[in-house]
Amino acid sequence: MANNEELLTKEITLSMGPQHPSTHGVLHLLLDMKGEKIVSASPDIGYLHRGTEKIAENLLYHQFVPYTDRLDYMAGMSNNLAYVQAVEKLLSIEITERAKYIRVIAAELSRIAGHLLCIGAWALDLGAMTVLLYAFREREMVLDLFEMLCGARMTHNYMRIGGVRYDINPLFKEKCMEFVELLPQRINDYDQLLTENRIWLKRNKGVGVISAEDAINLGLSGPILRGSGVKWDIRKDEPYLVYDRLDFDIPVGENGDCFDRYAVRMEEMRQAARIIKQALLQLPDGRPCVDMPDVVLPQRRDIETNMEALIHHFKLVSHGFKAVKGEAYSSIESPKGELGFYIVSDGSEKPFRVKIRAPSFVNLQAINPMCKAGYLADVIAVVSSLDPVFGEADK
Amino acid sequence: MTVGPDSILIKSVKDRYNSSVLDTIVLRDEVTHVIKKGSLLQICTFLKDNLALQFNFLSDITAVDYFPQKPRFEVIYHLYSIAKKHRVRLKVKLDDGETIPSVTAIWSAANWAEREAYDMFGIRFEGHPELRRIYMPEDWDGFPLRKDYPLRGYKDRYNPYGEEKL
Predict the structure, then answer these.
(1) Would residue B110 count as lying in a domain?
(2) What is the CATH number of the domain that holds A168?
(3) Is residue A50 part of a domain?
(4) Rounded distance, CA B118 to CA A388, Å?
(5) Nearest-CA residue of chain A relative to B113?
(6) CA distance B20 to chain A (A)
(7) Strands A37-44 and A28-34, bridge-based pairing
(8) Which residues, in sequence order, are bridge partners of residue B24?
(9) Which residues is B94 bridged to in the sheet?
(10) Which end of chain B is more exposed for a tag (fewer CB within 10 A), N or C?
């Protein structure tokens, strides 16, 4: 330096996103940095806010189901399930045994689809492109199964209040069984590519650490909370559908770092395959929907042959059904964490208020404590390990 | 699990804070306490620290607008206990323009949830570290989830389909 000036490190603010390939959507992070170190990271969200809750207040109960597909669009079935389950709780509907098993299969398939994308994109962000291509190969198989189930790959609109839209057919059963037999081997492949990989370990071990106590206090849920060693899974602790009859383990981490969150997700996929296999074997006969003509739409063939069915169909599509005055909160363990729907009813055909407890939204609060004092490159690993989906976080 | 009138969720709160609990509702096995605003922080701290209750997990905070009723808003707290596996719901009634104490000091999860309630309903939480909008732009006019806010928003140069503002 000319005048013997000291070389000073100045604090700068860096905007990361909302258009950035590693922020998984429209996340805008304001990073205060001192050199390469993060002083604080504050997320700025809302770029994908569509007012889903306001829309829900202006629709009939059954008309809102397709909107839930667009929340966590990586795992649409889980959102369908969480919403219809909340409405069923409000209406006190007990669905058929067969529908419960079908719902478990669909929800666990969507967990696999969600986690595959999470791990694939995460590996890509940290420079391991192969895993993404492999993960998409398997995800494609899940989407094909969904297509076989309901005709749609991403926005399923499959669950309906009172059951599911279509019964599953023998071909689906066969293909699904093939898939869950194959998946654990494929996960072993990812394991070989990542788990012992030196670069993967360096970038994830000890990065974005959060203690169990802080994680609970911040309201984190799902694989992120379990990565910190808290064994809380709604499927076990407040069992819904038939999860209490199925045998599966809840993996937990120890250190609460990115690597533990990765390990938890890998094991959860294996467990999901286990659950689907049992559900397919135990699947009872019966109807896919409850017999409640005032709530459930009749089958297509009945509309063509049965006058009453036609009337019910017309009545339901044009007027919907009334729910009792009151409120209900119901939550499920979605791939991202606790996904809850809180519905307030004023006794009319439309919900008075629908509140979505979106796990991605709450989990994003952890970005600052996880990134603080780390390096800029670690922010990428932390965001990937939180696995936010902005359809859900921004509602 | 069915919730009876002897449930710890009801008894423990009523025994201690009888004068602050305005109403207790049990519907679909969910316990709701409607409480006075002044005792919110005390009751929340009690629920979190009591060893038999241990509500260490704040699931959600939200609000409901009952316009044109008075008081207009209900602020709703969904609590869960990871250790005891039970849930409770607290409700506080609030009128337009009133403030409510923030629970961020008890559960840091309340930070964004309260910001969301402020953004959507205009409810001010006293003692919140940075109460500003979270979804809508900083300069947004109005609070979208209020019942008197039109579904399509207000008409301006970006929104030709909105309603005229009176």
Answers:
(1) yes
(2) 1.10.645.10
(3) no
(4) 23
(5) A362
(6) 22
(7) antiparallel
(8) B33
(9) B73
(10) C
What's the CA gap between A360 and B131, in Å, rounded?
20
Predicted local distance difference test score (pLDDT) of residue B18 = 82
Is residue A166 domain-resident? yes
- Identify the pLDDT of residue A4: 60
For residue B143, being part of any structural domain is answered with no
pLDDT over 70 at A5, yes or no: no
User: What is the distance in angstroms between the Cα of A49 and the nearest Cα belonging to chain B?
Assistant: 6
Q: Mutation target for B interface from A27, A217, A250, A334: give the one with most B CBs within 10 A.
A: A217
What CATH number does the domain containing B27 carry?
3.30.460.80
Q: Which pLDDT tens digit goes with each residue over A330-340?
A: 999 999 999 99
How far does A2 lie from chain B, in Å, by closest CA? 44
User: Chain A to chain B, count of Cβ pairs less than 8 Å apart?
Assistant: 85
A340 and B78 within 8 Å at the Cβ level: the answer is: yes
Q: How confident is the model at residue B7 (pLDDT cuts 50, 70, 90)?
A: confident
Alpha helices of chain A — where are they, by DSSP H? Answer: 52-57, 65-69, 76-91, 97-125, 129-150, 170-194, 198-204, 212-217, 223-227, 234-237, 258-282, 300-305, 307-319, 359-363, 367-371, 376-386, 390-393
Quick check: is B155 in a domain? no
Helices A376-386 & A258-282, crossing angle to 10 degrees?
20
Residue of B nearest to A394 (CA): B135
Cα separation, B110 vs B76, whole angstroms = 12
ipTM: 0.91
Domain of A98? 61-292+366-386
Report how many domains make up chain A. 1
Query: How far, rounded to the nearest angstrom, does the alpha carbon of residue A235 sit from its chain's CA centroid?
Result: 14
Is the pLDDT reported for residue B23 higher than 90? no
B137 in any annotated domain: no
Cβ B85–A238 below 8 Å, yes or no? yes
Predicted confidence (pLDDT) at residue A352 exceeds the cutoff of 60: yes
Given this model, what pLDDT does residue A220 score? Answer: 92
Q: Which residues of B fall below an 8 Å CB-CB distance to A?
A: 27-28, 30, 32, 56-60, 62, 64-65, 76, 78, 82, 85, 87, 89, 107-109, 111-113, 116, 120, 133-137, 144-145, 149, 151
pLDDT over 60 (residue A2): no
- The helix (run of H) or strand (run of E) holding residue B9 is helix B8-17
Which helix (H) or strand (E) is A34 found in, with range? Answer: strand A28-34
Please answer yes or no on whether A54 and B145 come within 8 Å at the CB atom: yes
Of B62, B108, B113, the CB nearest to A217: B108
Average pLDDT over residues B101-121: 92
CB contacts, 8 Å: B76 with chain A? 342, 355
Is A54 close to B144, i.e. CB distance below 8 A? yes
Mean pLDDT of A273-293: 90
Residue A163 belongs to a domain: yes
- Tally of structural domains, chain B: 1
* Residues on chain B touching A232 (C-beta within 8 angstroms): 82
B26: domain range? 8-126
Whether A348 is covered by a domain: the verdict is no
